[in-house]
Amino acid sequence: MNQLEEFLNYLFVEKGLASNTVDSYRRDLKSFFDFLINTNKKSVQDVSRDDIVNYLSFLKTKAKAAATIARHTAALKAFFKFLYQEGYLPENIAEDIKRPKQQQKLPLFLTFEEVDKLLDSPVLNTPGGIRDKAMLEVLYATGMRVSELLNLNLSNINLEIGYVRCMGKGSKERIVPLGSKAIESLDTYLRWGRSKLLKNRREQTVFLNNHGRKMTRQGFWKIIKNYAQKAGIEKDISPHILRHSFATHLLENGADLRAVQEMLGHSDISTTQIYTHVTRGKISQVYRQAHPRA
Question: Looking at domain 2-85, which CATH architecture does it have?
Answer without folding.
Answer: Orthogonal Bundle (1.10)
